[in-house]
Each structure stands twice: as structure tokens, then as C-alpha cells.
Amino acid sequence: MNLSNAKLGHVIFSKSLGYEYGCHNKTRRSLQVAATIFAGQINPGAYFDSLANGSNAVYIDRLYSKWWKNPSSVDESWDAYFKGKSRDFSTLSKPKKKESKPTANASRSVSATAGTATAAPNADWKYIDDHLAVQAIIRAYQTRGHLAADLDPLEIVGPTGHYLSIDDRKLQATRAVLRQHYSYSFNDLNALFKLPISTLIGGNEQFLPLKEILERLERVYCGHIGVEYMMITSFFKSNWIREHFEKPGSMNFTADEKKLILERLTRSTGFENFLAKKFSSEKRFGLEGCDIMIPVLKEIIDQSVKSGVESVYIGMAHRGRLNVLANICRKPIKDILSQFRTLKARDWGSGDVKYHLGVFSDRLNRFNNKNVRITVVANPSHLEFVNPVVLGKARAEMYHRGDYRGNKVLPIMMHGDASFCGQGVVYESIHLSDLPAYTTHGSIHVVVNNQVGFTTDPRFSRSSRYCTDVARVLSVPIFHVNADDPEACVHCARVAAKWRAKFHKDVVIDIVGYRRNGHNEADEPMFTQPLMYQRIRKMKPCTIKYADRLVKAGVIKMEDYTAMVSKYEKLCNDAFKESKKIKTFKNSHWLDSPWSAFFQGRDRLKMCPTGVNLKVIEHIGNVYSSPPPPEQKFDLHRGIMRILAMRKKMMEECMADWSLGEALAFGTLVKDGIHVRLSGQDVERGTFSHRHHVLHHQSKDRQSYNSLQFLYPDQAEYFVCNSSLSECAVMGFDLGFSMANPRTLVIWEAQFGDFVNTAQPIIDQFLASGETKWVRQSGLVLFLPHGMEGMGPEHSSGRIERFLQLSDDDQDCFPDLSDPDFVARQLLAVNWFITNVTTPANLFHALRRQVALGFRKPLINFTPKSLLRHPLARSPFQDFDECSSFQRCIPETGKAAASPDCVEKLIFCSGKVYYDLLREREDHQQEETVAIARLEQLCPFPYDAVVTEIEKYKAAELIWLQEEHKNQGGWPYVKPRFDTTLLNIDNEK
Q1: Nearest 10 degrees: CA dihedral of 293, 297, 299, 303?
Q2: Apex CA 198: angle with CA 197 and CA 203, to 5°?
Q3: pLDDT digits (tens, 9 = 90+) for 807-823
Q4: Closest listed residue to residue 683, CA positions, set 841, 863, 842, 835
Q5: What is the pTM of this model?
Q6: CATH topology of domain 614-786+836-880
């Protein structure tokens, strides 16, 4: 037999071989060889072949003799092994006298002797070597025991992690041969060994027989739980894991706890069975095969509430969502069942399929009689993209609660096995784990492992052994568990919740089960997984297996289980009858994290002013342009000193450039109690070195100064967060943050506008359509640097056309301009605002308008690059005062405006190209014949302002000018709206 090194870890840990490799011969060398095999130091191929052929340690004697004559005549791994040994191997196979069992005193004396520079002549080398070998075996189980754990309920995955093949079956036959071969050697198993401090399998016992050591290691590491934790570098944390898995009795459950597990499992299975009977042809993405997920979630929440958690955020894809809504959130089952029928919504919004909907609930927890808030965040079909949104929502609630350690807020992520390892947003999201501005102080990840992704088995969907290997980068525990062992699953959930509460680090539970039906209930899985589903068809549901187990153990009677099933089935039937009475529903009833207090008594059509008193402007500007206080002895960069001097000069001139206009917006908002969060790559300085909100000490590490944090004693906080090099996860995070509280301004800035491309799913599925689908408002602002300035086709364009194409305003509908609330109604009706502003003052008002409105919409703002320092892109302070406001369209104010009848061309444009036009018009001396109007807001389209300009220059030729190509930029969007405007003007004539 020839086994490759790749299979070594799985072979040596089989239940049948777990102790035999260490005990097949009465010599000490056998243990040493086994230990080195466990440690992966020698080639096991020839060694295992010799064992299978019936030989014993004599084989090693022969190898040693061969090596002694010619080291190159043996495998290089044996060469390395023998080079490390100084003693003669010729006595290896000679019989030894039976030795007495060691005592604790003997152990201590041997240890003391071994620690000296020159060992005593009578040192018991055999005893020392044997103990070292046993320690190596224990460590091998701790390190690789999970590779041989019995994780697959279907028993179709072999020890290599793939489906059983001919080679795997040969391996199983070889194990049987080895079992027979070593049946005579059990006498050795009674030898006592002192347990090292690196294991807790002995409990209070210091010495155990070898047989008991191996059996306990088998139970702990090769049973229904595979524990990955040895990559954790902290001994304290590793030992904590051992306490909860190795220590005898650590996995025991009381009779009442077992009954509770069965009851929860019954509800989980009962809900799926009921839906299958009543809606057999409907897609529901049921949980069958991983029914234990509900008890696992319940246990996590119960344990977390004991630790002080008051709010839980759950992010998950579609599989099992309805079950979670019913049995975790306790959403009325009648409301869930009503979603299977086509009902008309009583409020606005298109709605979404039932297995994408979110929900918010306050529940009384049975452990402490306190309410716990459970939120399931709405998620589209893009599976894992809800992860960063959940993290952002959780982090925001922590901030607003003052929960700076994550003691009261817990994010739980539910994953699929194929998506967890296949989608990059997972990796981006988990890497936010320990970043100061993005950490949630530990998330609990639960993988519902169906062992298949839609129709693709793991051999073709991942290269790693486990779907969870991507989480190893965090050095946190990963618990693999057999879904058909409810107690093992619940134990993992309990330990995971305790781990997060103690260490505030992520933890992963990989529930290895199966999918009883196809990807959805209408699929035929036998098309692509015939062997798997032949076995699944024969499988008893986990609930029935566990009930039988408890009946045999005398914990319950079969009548008790039958009563549980009947009780829950009656509850579902009653809800089904009630659901038929429901004729309409409200989309808002499926809203996660509602802002009820924000909307109460608020007039959504009221346009609040965005200008401020000039004294406030002056105060903020003076602080912003000043260095840190002298008492801080802050060592500033000379370049920063020049920048501060330039800011001072602007304050004296009462003019604001782009940086100052932005800072004035942030400063006035925090003065009003609005928390401002600016996030993205290199936002502290700004990609184009224009911002410099965070000043760094030049000679001391981790000392910085943000002047906007020190404007007023009672101001809100202003956070500037340099992010990881991620767009998708960080934008999703900031989107989630913006959803938590409406009195927050959250801005995500791209280094260049084109960087937004890698966050497209967040934009498409959440930002552009989230309110329509889920009535979920967000005031998130995107800053996308844009401008055709010779930086290549990528770094020039922020793809304005993509965002405009996603806007939901009607290009053929001309609004009623006589309505005094026209502007507010237009803003309220559209899905987001898209601006391409050209002045610092207009940026100031656009940002303040985000908070001043009686509702929240995303703002997509295309920020400039060259205009950051353009001498004409300045705004006088009077454009910030109480009489000023956001200008959706800035009209011509020069010579052409004074003589409108002389104007031959009226040019509409947007963004930075305006300043290029100014220069061209001046060069050609056409100031009186060419008028230029700037559309600062493209969406919603400012019809009223456009009409005013067109009617003012009645004889002028109408032109739209842009930098971008004809099929890019604003033209595809504005053209039909200009047509609608002109048609309306003609009709009125």
C-alpha cells in the first residue's frame, strides 16, 4: 500500500488506528516512531507497507543498517530522521524486560535530571522518550484530530475531505488489516504516563494509562466535533478551548437541557414540514438536513443574553430564513404564511420575495426576563454581501449605546458553505474584525454546510480542505460539527457564545449537514448529485434520531415527543387559518431597525434651511486653520504648517476653497449634534492631499490631532477612518452604519471614482433599491472623484452614467411646477440624489441638506480633483450664511445674463468642465453671446430651473456639453428629460 503525505493526517487519526500506531510493539522506539509520524517528520509510506505485510520494528533496524552504510540509499526523510539520532538502532527489536510503573516522585526526579547539562549515568532514557512521544501524540490529536472527526452525517466524505473513491476504500481495508495485526499488543496500553500541562483530558488526574489517554483524545478530537484552534498563538486562549472540550464532563447536558434541545429541534423541523405540506410547489429554501441551526442560534442568543447582550443582529442568505423569522424572531406565523399568497401592500414600495425580507423584534428572554432586540437584516440574492452591512449596523448601535467593548450588541453571520469560501466579500468583511474604526468586537459565524453549492460539490467549488479555511487568517477557533448530533452542535454554540463574550473575537461554527431537497424545492437534485441523494432519501431526520436516542436513554417517553410534534403542528394550522383572513400587508412591517421616533410628527415635505450664521463659520474656520495648542508640544510637518497658513489667509479673505467648505459642513453638523463619519482609503489626508483633517506627530507614534473634534465642548464626534484596501466590504459597512441612526452623516470616499466598480453589488442591491424593496432608508454619501484630466480611462471617470441609469425617476413625466412643495416631493420620490457640484458652498449645503430633510436618501456626489485647488473654485462666506441654500442649478451671472436677448448659445453642463468652458469663452471673447448654466444636481432633474434658463434665453441655441463620451456621463440621462421639458414648453405656447 502506498499512502501519500497528503493523506497522512487523516490516516493516523482513524478511530481504529488512533492508538495502534503508538502501541504495536513493546519497545520504546515504537512510540517514538509513532510520534514522529504524527508530527509529519517521516515518510509513512514504506513504514505502513511493512506493517501491512506483517513485519514490525525490525524493518527500522534494517533501514538503519542500510543508512549507516550509505545515507543516500534510503528516502531523504529517513535520512533526516536517522541523522537526528545518536544511539544505535541495532537493539531496537531486542526484547526488553518488563519495567515497573513510574511514580510521581520518579517523574519529578527524572525531569530534574534531564534538565541538567550532563545527565546522570542512570537516567531512564526510555521513560523520558516515552513521555516525549506521548506528548507528541497528544499534540498531534490537538493539531490534526479534526481531520479524522466524524463530521459527515451522510458518511460519503472520506478522510481526505472528498467523496470516497476506490483508493479510499482500499485505505479502509488496510485499516482492518492493521487492527488485526495489532490485536495482540493491548498489554502495552496499561502503561501509565504523566499528562503534560498542554492537555486537560485527565481533569484532576495527573497520570493515565496510555489506553485511556488515546481513548479520551479520540472522543474529544475524532468524534462528532472537529476543533481547529492550534493556530491560536495565545496559550491562555488555547487552554480556554481545551477546558471546554478536553476536560471530562465539559460536554454533559442535563435531562432538562436535552428536552429543550429536542423541543427546539421539533419546532425547527415542524415548521419546514408544515410548509412542505401546505406549499409543496413554492420556493421556500427550507432548512431540512440542517434543522439543528435553530437550536444553535437559540443557544447562542441565550448564552449571550446571560453575558449582557441586549441587541442581536443576524445576517443570512435565503436558506432557513423563514424558519429563523418564525422560531428565532417569533414573527407571527400567520404573517409569514400570508406572504405565500399574492397580497397588495398598503404602503409604498415594491416589496421583495419572502425569503429576502428582514424583520425587527423585541423579545423577552427566558433567562433574565429582559427584552432582547433581534434584527434579521434584509438581504438580496447576493448571499454574503449582507455581511458588512450587518457589521456596520452593529458597530453603529454600539457607538450610539456607548458600548465600546461590544458587551451589549452581538452580530451573528449565517453563511453557506459554497459562498463562504467562494465570495471575496467574506474575506474583506472578516478582515475588518480588529480594525479600530470597524471592529464589532467579535462576530459569531455559523456555516450551514450542505456539502453542495447549488449543484456543485466541494471538489469543484473550493481548493481548501474546509469551506471555513478563509477564517484561519483571524487565528480564532473553528468548530466543525456533525449536524446529526444535536448535543455536539449546541455545545459548540455554547462555547462560541462564551468565547465571544470573554475574548471579543470572532468564532466560527461549521455545521456539516446536508440539503434534503434541491437548491430550492422545485429543483431535482438527482440530476447532478445522484449518489448523495440516494443516501439522503434513506436518511432519518435528525429530530427523529434524537428523539429515539432520548427515549432509549430514559430522558423522555415517546408520547412526550409525539405531544411536542402535535402541539407545534396545531400552532401552525391555527396560524394558517388566520393567514387566510389577511388581505393586505404593510412593507413597513418587515422593516429592520425602524426609526419610529424620527418620523413621528415630522413633516417630510418641509425644506429646512441649510445656511448658518457667519460667526459660526468664522469660529470653525479659525480652529480648522490653527495648529494644535502649544501645551501639546505637537511636532508638525513643515508642509502642514504651510497648509495651515494658507487656510488662515483664506479666513482673512472670507473665502473658502474645497477643503475649507467641506470642513465647514462637518463642523456645523457636529455643532448641531450630528455624528459625522468619513470613511475610506486614505481619507485622513485625502487622496489628493487636500484634506489633512488628522495631523500626525512627526516624532511620536500614535499621536494625532483632529481640530474638528475640538470645536465646541458639547459637540458630536467627528471620526475620520482610514479603511482597509476594500471598497465592497467597507462601503457595505458604512451603509449599515448609516441605517442605524438618522442623526448621523456617513460618507464613504473612493480614492478615484472608478474604485466604486468593485462595490457594485452594494450599490445595485442595497443602495439603489433598498428603500423600494425593504422600505429601508439610508442617508449614506458617496464621494467619487471624477474628471477627465489625463489620468487614463479608469482614474478619470466615476461612471456617472451607471448611477443615473439606476435612478428611478420617470423621464417622460413633467412635474407640476406650480406645486409649492415641488422640490421636496421630487426629492422624496426619487431613490437617491446625484450631484456634480462645482463650488465649496454648494458642497456645504448638499451635505447639510442630507440631515436637514425629513427623510433620508443616499447622495452620490462626484467630487473634483483639479478643482480642489482651482483658483476659481472658491466660495465667499456669504454663500454659507443663513440666507443661502443648495443650488440645484447655478445660472449664468456674467455679461450674458445682463443681455439675454443677445445670447446665441445656452450651454448646460455639469461639474469641472464648467471652468474649462469659462476659459474657452474668455479666450474667444464670447462672454456676451454664450451663457453657461451648471446642473449641480442631475437627479432628480431640476425641471423648474432648466425651464427658467430656457425661457430667459429664448433666441439661444440649446446645447449640452460634457467631458465624457456620448454614451457616458450625463447625456444619456439628461437628453430625454430635456426633450420632455421642451415638449412641455411648446405645449404651453
Answers
A1: 160
A2: 65
A3: 999 999 999 999 999 99
A4: 863
A5: 0.85
A6: Rossmann fold (3.40.50)
